[in-house]
């Protein structure tokens, strides 16, 4: 099976690398982020035109995604019912990465813009295209 290409989907990517990262914030909300091994950190802005989509893909690490405008319709490759999660502007979601195959589609009339923060093992490929899992008709 071959990978499913993106269509009407563009990414603006910034990258930084650190040997380790330790953030402990004791105030509310309490935050603890520990990355003990070298990792690459990405700030990604995705722009998806109406009818556009990311193609099926995964990431080797987690992504925290904020929907800036439009509506993100997210399909999980493991869902045999092909039932999407819908995220309007002002909401967000976490993609766990680690082989989790998914697709983001813009099924609305407004341009979709998402912003993501990703942590990827050092030197790893940020995005890994995947073949269709066969759970959805597209």
Structure notes:
With 138 residues, this protein is mainly beta. It has one domain (8-123): Jelly Rolls, CATH 2.60.120.10. 0% of the residues lie in helices and 55% in strands. The chain has strands spanning 7-18, 21-25, 31-35, 39-53, 57-58, 63-69, 71-76, 85-88, 92-95, 102-105, 112-121, 128-129. The protein has a five-stranded antiparallel β-sheet, with no helix packed on it. Strands 8-7-10 form a three-stranded antiparallel β-sheet, with no helix packed on it. The chain is globular and about 45 Å long. 22% of the residues are buried. The mean pLDDT is 96.
Helix content: under 10%
- Which residues form runs of ≥5 with pLDDT under 50? none
* CATH topology grouping: Jelly Rolls
Q: What is the CATH C-level name?
A: Mainly Beta
Number of structural units classed as domains: 1
Strand order in space, largest sheet: 1-4-11-6-9
Sheet with most strands? 5 strands, antiparallel
Provide a count of the helices.
Answer: 0
Please, what is the average pLDDT? 96
Assigned CATH superfamily = Jelly Rolls
Helix and strand arrangement:
Layout: E1 7-18, E2 21-25, E3 31-35, E4 39-53, E5 57-58, E6 63-69, E7 71-76, E8 85-88, E9 92-95, E10 102-105, E11 112-121, E12 128-129
Antiparallel strand pairs: 1-4, 2-3, 4-11, 5-12, 6-9, 6-11, 7-8, 7-10
